[in-house]
Write a structure and sequence with these properties.
Number of domains: 1
CATH class: Mainly Alpha
Strand order of the largest sheet: 1-2
Shape: elongated
Strand content: under 5%
Helix content: 55-70%
Order of helices and strands: EEHHHHHH
Oligomer: single chain
Structural class: mainly alpha
Mean pLDDT: 91
Radius of gyration: 18 Å
Number of strands: 2
Distance between the termini: 52 Å
CATH superfamily: Cobalamin adenosyltransferase-like
CATH topology: Hypothetical Protein Ta1238, Chain: A
CATH architecture: Up-down Bundle
């Protein structure tokens, strides 16, 4: 199978159910923002030591993001019935919350807004957080037009919280100060 199909040359793209929409359709924008986030996490992961706990967590999140994208790319939201890999739900959100709680236990309490930055990993996690927030906003906008499972927005909301805490945690481990606003 070739990577190019030429079917999108006129500005449309195919969805999982076989229907075609314009490439600037809100559904495509939503899963495109999630794809950008997933790729950003790949950049972060590429700079981590092999076998690191953070790298393993990022892989799990990348898989979740692919599942969310697949669900958004299927207007019937039946992709979960066809592909066992597509698992999203309360248990994944609870797993994110557990990761947040574990990292927050090591951090000093927040007393002010902090500026994005720190070391390379922390700064990139802050960037990933902003992309995640954009993806969440795009999904919220899409949900005003078509039915979207609320768990998708909940996952993105919790993930942005986790990315923020991960950024703080990585900077804290590196003994880098947080610049406050």
């Amino acid at each position: 199978m070739k990577i190019y199909t030429k079917t999108g040359d006129r500005g449309d793209t195919g969805l999982i159910d076989g229907s075609r929409v314009q490439k600037d359709d809100p559904r495509v924008s939503a899963y495109g923002d999630i794809d950008e986030l997933q790729a950003t996490l790949g950049v972060i992961k590429s700079e981590l030591p092999q076998g690191s706990a953070l790298g393993a967590l990022l892989i799990a999140v990348q898989k979740d993001l692919f599942s969310l994208s697949a669900r958004l790319a299927d207007p019937t939201d039946n992709v979960a019935d066809r592909k066992k890999k597509v698992v999203t739900g309360d248990s994944r959100i609870e797993a994110l919350e557990s990761e947040i709680d574990q990292r927050e236990a090591d951090l000093p309490p927040l007393k002010a807004f902090i500026l994005a930055g720190g070391g390379p990993t922390g700064a990139q996690l802050h960037l990933a957080r902003t992309i995640c927030r954009r993806a969440e906003r795009t999904v919220v906008g899409l949900s005003r037009q078509v039915p979207i499972d609320p768990v998708i927005g909940m996952y993105l909301n919790r993930l942005s919280d986790l990315l923020f805490v991960m950024a703080r945690h990585e900077n804290h481990k590196a003994e880098l100060p947080e610049d406050v606003w």
